Amino acid sequence: MTPGRRSSTFTRLLRHGFTDPSAAERLLDGPELATVRDDPVLLEALGATADPDLALHGLVRLLEAQPTPTAHRELLDTLVAAKPLRDRLLGVLGASTALADHLTRHPTDWHALVTYEPHDLHPGVTEFERGLAEATDPVSLRVAYRRCLLSLAARDVCGTTDVAETAGELADLATATLRTALALAAAAAPEDAAACRLAVIAMGKCGGHELNYVSDVDVIFVAEPTESTPEQQALRSATKLASHLMRICSETTVEGSIWPVDANLRPEGRNGPLVRTLSSHVAYYQRWAKTWEFQALLKARPVAGDPALGQAYLDALHPLVWKAAERENFVPDVQKMRRRVVENIPAAEIDRELKLGPGGLRDVEFAVQLLQLVHGRTDPALRSGTTLDALKALAAGGYVGREDAARLDEAYRFLRSMEHRIQLYRLRRTHLVPEAEADLRRLGRSLGLRTDPVGGLTREWKRHSTVVRRLHEKLFYRPLLDAVAQLAPGEARLSAEAARERLIALGYADPAAALRHLEALASGVTRKAAIQRTLLPVLLGWFADSADPDAGLLNFRKVSDALGKTPWYLRLLRDEGAAAENLARVLSAGRLAPDLLMRAPEAVALLGDGVGGGLAPRQRAALEQEIMAAVGRAENAAQGVTAARGVRRRELFRTAAADIVGSYGTETSPAEADQGALVDRVGAAVSDLTKATLAGTLRAVVREGWGDTLPTRFAVIGMGRFGGHELGYGSDADVLFVHEPREGVAEQEAAAAANRVVAEMRRLLQLPSADPPLLIDADLRPEGKSGPLVRTLKSYEAYYRRWSLVWESQALLRAEPVAGDGDLGRRFVELIDPLRYPAKGLTEDAVREIRRLKARMESERLPRGADPKLHTKLGPGGLSDVEWTVQLLQLRHAHHEPGLRTTRTREALAAARAAGLLSAEEAEILDEAWVLASRVRNAVMLVRGRAGDTFPTEPRELAAVGRYLGYGAGHAGDMLDAYRRTTRRARTVVEDLFYGD
Q1: What is the pLDDT of residues 615-668, one digit of tens each?
Q2: 790-792 and 275-276 as β-strands: parallel, antiparallel, unpaired?
Q3: What DSSP letter does each residue of 149-187 carry, written as one string?
Q4: What is the pTM of this model?
Q5: Per-residue pLDDT tens digits for 570-597
Q6: Which of 146, 583, 751, 835 is at a distance of 20 to 30 A from 33, taking alpha carbons?
């Protein structure tokens, strides 16, 4: 061969996908292919295979094995002339060394690939039985099996069948093989065959009609005696036949084995008898079977032996399968099985595990089976043993989102295709993705990834695994299933009577009204109604866990009516377990959160990600940025403030929802144990939101009246609970207003501008609208209501120097700039620090004055008829007691103890303890009382929708407050006793620290 030709051939071979062109050249120049080596059709066909080098090598081996020159010539002529044979034969040789080995041992079996009739395209059990009919012993059965497998694999690698059809054909071939093996066993022991009726029930992937190339074939045997045969004798005979069948398929011979037949899914596993009667099976499943055994029965299918007995087995046991979801701990059992499978994978293999690893095939199969078992008890359309068929039915019934189902279907098909190609190579049972580059290259090319087979395969595999992992976690672990699985039979889809009975049992006060809501939500044949029927049984249980289930259901109807036509709403509730439970908690916990939600129902989308995501409070900077942007787009101040109030309403809902969910807990995460953390989160979130709202309102008013610059610098100083980052849902915003005329601006003009700004801010924030008003209270200013609303910094300085009273120094302990000119706010703080942190502490006269004011406030401000011991603000051991005690410590010691220089009560209390100003026990008692009183105030606002300082008297409202605080139904008295006990202990500490010498 000339160098020029060699170079040309070498290049052509590289272009056609050969990785060892030199070896390929030698084979093409060899005697076996001498007559066709220059045929372009052959080279083109080799280049189209998964591994052209492997296909060429296998072809040469097959030609060498031909028994006669005539057979050799026939194969070559057919190969060149017949495209179907060429594609099938070379496709198999390029994908499977095991089938190439078979062809080398049985060189005439290539004829099985020549026929191309319609019935050859999709053969079934009958065609495969015909292909195995000549088998007379285990060895000939293996040869016939491989011959059938050869044509099946050819259809697969050529794309004539898709992965689901291939899996179905493999199951049909297994069925034909089991029947043939049973016939051989019966022929070898005719007396045993005559003594019993034996049925072979396929389980697992074979039963589900979705078998792999190499997999255990899971079976269960059931037998009955024939007439006049004693039962025990019949069972012995059936056991011999079953054991022989298993050996015929499993044992290794000169032709290898077919596949192991595994009967370990039978009752009692390998410790139980191999064969049982039907009544024995039924008795076991009724009394002893575990959850996983019912899950396994979902795929049971009679495949061989006595067909009537096989059908009787199904008829007897299938009803039990669809009651499995009613068993206690059903869903956790299944989930634990899945986790146990993952935990048993060696760490070195988990990233290569295609079947059992995270994002693998088992994730899809378990998720689908769990959904089937939960919902299939009332929907027979879901009872397919085939994963992809069941997934399609789940999507059609509204149990799985159509888009999710389509993506799972695509991912499952890709992963199964990978699994098939990996196993086909050597016909070995494995689910590990290979590591060698040559293996990955062949695998990628076999899946149609020709440009970059290794990189493309890795990217596609990871992409589909990620899809499966994400969707599997959403479908398999979603708490909705656990709740649905605990319902009484018949409630997954509510009939009117079942709904009424359940409503009464759950304690709905007005079941007739509740039933009308249910009928409005769930009646009809639309997809929306189908999803509602799936959700409602679960939601009813969650509503019933609240103090007011009727309100929860009514509010759910209102939200659904408002959002029912939006495509994402029901999808969110169905697919995100957290969203449905969170919504149920929020809608049934009181009036405030539902009222906020009804004003803009689209805020329900915030509920989808739980406290760590959609319900996490937003930072002040992000809130201010959003509000400022909205103000900037507005045409006037009124529009800008309306936008700011809209953001405030949405964020109040977010905060309230997170508070409710954290207080109630969910079925996957317990209630927040740290009550102080809940109070702090609400206080910080509402305070930050109020600051951002005031900042946006100030910007809107200034821009409309003066453009970019106000004639005077202007700052808003937060006071009271606002300055202390401790606002509740119903708190007013206590503030001071300070301004400073700009250079060249007359003081009168500056004052007029500042007063106009304040008046307009207060007006716009209180205008009647769908959004809650924000009330600004400036009564803590110098001279109180009698003094000017706005002062200059110099005026504040003059007043505090000459006229300041001790109560004003105390009030200034909470002062903190919250909006407006930052430099002016900082200088205001510098001005007041000497007043609130006096260098010499307090005089005895000042201490007496504070105590006198405290006593006067308790006696004069306590509402008439209120129980002092249950008043959260002014009652003994309540908020006022704790705060005044802490503030007295600050006034006395903050100048020398920097830790006390904070506007926050709990922070100051912790600093006082650290400084040794009170004991750890005293600090803990005061902190517990303050947190509890704050929680009660928040609860009252959440439940009643309006602020209050005392426990409600209406029983349902009182129960709702109790539920928020962690008390179950019927324990409102315990809650009140605990409050009295906590505040009584706090009052004792207050008496010592505040009133004592």
Answers
A1: 888 999 999 999 999 999 999 999 999 999 999 999 999 999 999 999 998 877
A2: unpaired
A3: HHHHHHHHHTTSS-HHHHHHHHHHHHHHHHHHHHHHHHH
A4: 0.60
A5: 888 887 768 888 999 999 999 999 999 9
A6: 146
